[in-house]
Amino acid sequence: MPNPGKANTAASSSRPAEENHESENTPLLSSSAATPRYDGENDGGPSPSSSPRAEVSSIKASDTKGTRWPSIIAMALLAFLSITAIAVAFFVPAAVEEYAKQAVVIEPTNLSLESLTSDGVRARIQANFRLDGSRVRNEHVRRVGRATTWIVRALGTEETKVNVTLPEYDNILLGTAVVPPLVISIVEGQTTAIDFVAELTPGDTDGIRMIANEWLEGRLDVLRLQGKTDIQLKSGLLPLGTHTVSESLTFEADKIPDMPQYNITRLRFRETPLPGDDYKDGMGADVSLVAFNKYPVSLDIPKLGFEVLLPGCSLDDDNILIATAFTESLAVRPQSNVTAEVHGLIRELPESLTKVCPNSKSSPLDMLLKQYMGGEEATVFVRGAKWPLDDTPGWVADILSSVTLPIPFPGRSFDSLIRNFSLTDVHFTMPDPFADPDDPDANPKVSGNILVLAGLPSELNFDINVTNVRATADVFYKSRELGKLNLRHWQKAKSTKLDATADQEAMLKIQSRIKDAPLNVTDADVLTDVIQELLFGGKGVLLDIKAHVDVKVQTVLGQLILKDVPAEGKIPVKPLPRKSLGSLSPKIGNISIIDTTASSIELTALVNITNPTPYSAYVPYFGIHLLSNGTLVGQATVKNMNLIPGNNTNLVVRALWNPSWGGDLGVEVGRDLISGYLSGFNTSVTVRTHRLSIPALPDLGEALSRLNLTIAAPRLSLPGHDEGEKAHFIRDATFHILSSTAQFTLVSPFTHNVLYIDHVNATAFYNHTDPVGRIEYEYPIACPPGASQTPKLPVDWSIGEGGYEKLRKALGGTLKLDANATVGVRLGAWTETVWYVGKGIGASVRL
């Protein structure tokens, strides 16, 4: 029998071992084979499988299957989680960030400023947000980003404050924006419409002014903005923490928004009472501007006040304040035209604006008007007024008053402003022969009445009174320049406003009298053509004139000078009457001999002529050559001669008779000319200018020499000569039959000199062919001034001829006789033998 104590001891000693074994190897869920049964079988004895060997085998089998796969799975899972954690911690955020940067698409649809507040702007921002994975270049980043955003689905933000600074300008705070909470979908392909109102507060005013001025002056090549904020993110109810976001945005020069292009659709100046002054008016200006807003921006701008400035004499000078202005309330809408109404007021013209600049002949106002009236683009400067209007927040006025904006002001061409420019009642003054070539007196001068008709632009709705004018004008004939007319001195003027009619706009009639304006002849050949056309063309000449006119204008602001106003017009030059050279009707009287030589006579004479033209002239000096049959026989000069239309009397002419200039032929031609003239024939002389005709303008005299003007030799005014009768040097004759002598009454054209007849060889005829008698006399006969009688000259009668019989029958009466003679004449040192043919000489017949 077994010992119970030992059995118990063994049992006790073996139980802990079994218990230990169970604690180490028994699975958490035991199998059914190891579970005790409650049906009574094997109730007190061990099962076969519970033998020691069986247990050992069971333990080994259990170790082989339970310790290998769980460990591998656990290790693999641990490795996967570790790698995933590393990827999520390092790669995924970087990939998602890169994905977000490249895939995000924000399309602004509208930006409207709902109101201006005392601190800033309340702006409503509308945009579309979406992610577009196709914009991501890296394929792996694209996949990770798409997966991550698909999982997250949406992100939300709390209220966020964004600060915008300028890193390159010591991080100047440009402005601050407070953005309300937002929720956006980040699933690719889904679009979130963003619509929120943000509070925008401007930052450093000095910084804003500095950036604005650099932009306006064209010195802003690159602008980098940096936005920085702490943003709190959440996905649904799951908070994702606070993240600091800092982004930079760089604008290149060509990407910075520029000033919008605008058109001035209306510009009107008017007189207006000055505020606070019932006795003084100023100049008001109303301007309408139209510009196109190409940005998706909408805002309502309240009335704003501005100051208008003009540039000074140089870039270093301060701009000159000239006017104040304000704009009406302005509604700006996206992608549409914006019309701005501006009203300005000019109280007076500052002295610095009208004062002539150093080393110049123009003032700042002159330079502005020259650009504007020449059609060029002028520049005015506009800055905000320091006196804000009631509707303008103070911070807006502070910013605007610190920024000066250059505004291109398109000019207007005034080429057609002056519609007519004419010159009437013209008076010419010939050049001064003793003036230097560069002296204005060395040019011909023109006086006359200027008549100008100028159109009044519709934008000038105020009274204008023209007080003075001056001009420089180019004169053309058939598109060729004749010369330059220089009205360098101010000429008094008066103006009359002509009201607009149904067919014509309002005009300004300007009248002025110019006196002695130099006409610088630039092309003598053109002047020659003009004179030739006037003399021989039988019709008038139309000269074209292109002028630049300076006008002194009296306005409500005082006196203004408009310089270089372009003007074009016509100067009609009336033709000389037909046969005008013949209608000059020159008559010579009071001939006085100044000097004589053996071959020349220098004399002065008083000439009466008729000026058939409507023009008057003053001639300080003018010289011409006298020709007969193309041979030079003398010259004539005039000095200080005034010519008026109509009759001109007692004009002093100085002449030099010297046919020897033409050689032997000239002497012969000169003798025939004098002989024919003394005989009463229809003689003529050719007058021609020469290089010294106008000493100050030798080229003009030479050019005019191409014109050969042939005129009838002027008639002599002889004492006792009746107007209309042919003048005869032999007034009458008395024939004495018994003494065979003849005595003649001679009339001398000279008033102070004695003419001598040294010898006479003459034959008298009746009826042109029948000889009466012959006279040969070799003794000098004196012919003093006026009428005188010769001594009784011996006559050799032609007895038996029909002429003598007629003479004898006329005894006690008179008879008309003709005479042919060769006469030697002497005047001082000058001598000449001339022939004489007299017809119809009244002869008295006595015993």
TrEMBL record:
Keywords: Membrane, Transmembrane, Transmembrane helix. Residues 461-574 form the Tag1 C-terminal domain. The keyword Transmembrane applies. Residues 723-835 form the Tag1-like fifth Ig-like domain. It comes from the Eukaryota. InterPro entries: Ig_Tag1-like_4th, Ig_Tag1-like_5th, Tag1, Tag1_C. The chain crosses the membrane at residues 72-92. Residues 1-62 are annotated as: Disordered. The keyword Transmembrane helix applies. This is Pre-rRNA processing protein. It comes from Coniochaeta ligniaria NRRL 30616.
